[in-house]
Amino acid sequence: MKNTRRRTAFLPLTPLGLGLLIAACSTTPPVPTQPLSPAVGAGLRQCEALAGQFRFDQTTIDSAAPVAAGGLTLGGQPVAAHCLVKGQMHKRKGSDGRDYAIGFEMRLPQAWNGRFYYQGNGGLDGNVQPAQGALGGGPVTGALVQGFAVISSDAGHSGPQTAVFGLEPQARLDYGYQAVAKLTPMAKALIANAYGKAPDRSYIGGCSNGGRHAMVAASRLGDQYDGYLIGAPGYRLPNAALAQLWGAQRWSPLATPGATVRHPLNPNASIPDLGSALNAAERQTVARAVLNRCDALDGLKDGLVQATQACQAAFDVARDVPTCSGARDGSCLTPAQKTVLAQVHAGGKASNGQPIYSAFPYDPGIAGNNWATWKFVNSVALDPLSVGTVFTAPPAAAADIAGARIDVLLPAISATSDTYKESGLALMSPPGHEKPTNLQPLRARGAKMVLYHGVSDAIFSAEDTRQWFERLNTAQGGKASDFARYFPVPGMNHCSAGPTADQFDLLGPLVKWVEQGVAPQAVTASARGAGNAGGVNAELPADWATNRTRPLCAYPTVATYNGSGPIESASSFSCR
Asked: Beta-strand (E) ranges in 270-386?
């Protein structure tokens, strides 16, 4: 079979390799020679009194109550004593007649480390998650455990299972970026009231839409935070959602006719079983093919492909995945399945050839259940709601969504109207993400960014994040690594899970970089095997040690086996 797969979708490594040449003619600002001063802690002065004493514009404190040590646990660890504050900002009656407010909670440790952490939540928001500041598949720790004062919010609307808020213009804007901008100064003022001093250092982080919140804040609120922890950022969420609709159209003809699965939001409803188009056994076959071609590229066959970029050049679906000569039995793919798999990994195109979204890397994490959920369930149950009500201007017609008319929807996410004065892309994406020169002030004052992304993320592409980092490096004269580091996580699906080591702490290294000047190059990640306090990952291969560790390496370096040493230990690998 002739190989027609285009290999140009993945940008080469040359921008980082040519950093010194670019820097020679760069006009980027100098990097501070000293780190920002370390935060100094303080004790909590008051808790219950905050409900009656704290005043801030458009803000209501509904309650403030102490939480005893151990009253909350995270990753199997008891959380120290703290004050739980709940409130609302900007209560209003929406143009749709509904009641709106930016709901929030803050957790203020009795023994505070002098730092503030804004917890960006995922999905469509709509719910105030516990303000723990936790990231990673099974959190080793979180901001609250580390002693941060932490805020969490619903981003300006209630109801996480509906996108109806997207019909209300201000609710769209709050969800996109304005809630973070409104909450940030209020949270700092509340901290000052509670401790008698403002936070010395402020951090913001999250995964998925929470990662997008953090990335957007870096562009819009570059003077408000000292550290940005950006996980699996859906910074082009409208494009990613459209690519999901486009992919569902391609998988549908290959699915079992009439087969259905339960709707994830409505137990009384069902949706087509798109997963029958590429079932679990077939995804395992693809994963094995990727491993056969790429596993040894990092120096060791261990069930992980850590040389991600080299793998994209080495792997070919048409050549490397067995082709069925008869009926589907799980050990092969039909030519039609291979074609669709290649098309979906390429990111999709409109009929005029315009790309819809980024390419997706090939990785053995395709075997993960989370990968299948995003590709085959959420693409039918969730993404049409987001595209139809939140990301298009005016909101898309039902017929366009039901038929996934990509040629109509793609320009609509960039459109505005008299009612919706900012497009879906504008309100969701970081300004200037095509050429991120606007991060120069952030860099100049000593703030830092750490990004991470599961290589087998099925909704937001790790390749999209990598290409953004390459553009950042070019815009920063080849010196992006002076203030930003990107850590791909091999095998990991969307924010967690898959055949991977997905338990890690990147917040601690970010703080050390900001306040001590120690840049993170290798961060240890652990597999969550039997007995793991943070929760067991049932998708780990049987031949892995339950406590396997691997270094997450700052791009473009790759975790490479040293040639000796225990294969289950991160100490046997180097980032190079």
From this structure: 270-272
Give 66's strand partners. 83
Q: For residue 479, give both structure tokens.
A: 């010196």
CA 260 to CA 266: how far, in whole Å?
Answer: 13
Q: Among all chains, which residue has been given the structure tokens 């898309």?
A: 396
> Is the backbone of residue 346 left (phi > 0), alpha (psi -120 to 50) or beta?
alpha
- The larger pLDDT score, comparing residue 326 to residue 76, is at 326
SS3 334: coil
Note the pLDDT of residue 251: 97
Average pLDDT over residues 113-128: 95
What's the distance, CA 544 to chain centroid?
26
Q: Which of 133, 149, 145 is nearest to 194 (CA)?
A: 149
Whole-number pLDDT of residue 24: 33
Give strand pairing partners of 271: 261
Q: Which of 100, 195, 189 minimizes the C-alpha distance to 147?
A: 195
Give the DSSP letter of residue 177.
Answer: I
- Residue with the two structure tokens 């002065």: 45
- What pLDDT, in 10s, does the model give residues 40-65? 999 999 999 999 999 999 999 999 99
d(CA 188, CA 194): 10
Q: Which of 89-98, 151-160, 233-242, 349-358 has the lowest mean pLDDT?
A: 151-160
pLDDT band at 324 (very low <50, low <70, confident <90, very high): very high
Contact 125, 91 (CB under 8 A): no
Alpha helices in 10-109 (DSSP H): 14-17, 19-23, 50-53
pLDDT tens-digit series, residues 479-508: 999 999 999 999 999 999 999 999 999 999
Residue from 303, 292, 248 nearest 498 by CA: 303
Beta bridge partners of 450: 229, 485
- Give the mean pLDDT of 378-404: 92
Q: Token pair of 355, please?
A: 């790309």
Average pLDDT for 384-412: 93
Q: What angle do CA 16, 21, 23 make, to 5 degrees?
A: 80
What is the identity of the amino acid at 176? G
Q: What's residue 140's pLDDT?
A: 82
Cis peptide before 395 (omega within 30 of 0): no
Positions annotated as catalytic residues are 208, 457, 494
**What one-character-per-residue DSSP string does 429-481 give?**
SPTTTTS-GGGHHHHHTT-EEEEEEETT-SSS-HHHHHHHHHHHHHHTTT-GG
| Arithmetic mean of pLDDT, 336-354 | 97
18: which 2 tokens? Answer: 């040519």
User: Taking a C-beta distance cutoff of 8 angstroms, is the pair 131, 105 a contact?
Assistant: yes
Q: Which two tokens stand for residue 519?
A: 């840049």
In angstroms, the Cα distances linking 493 to 381, 392, 462, 529 are 19, 27, 10, 17
* Rounded Cα distance, 491 and 305, in Å: 7
Looking at residue 437, its pLDDT comes to: 87
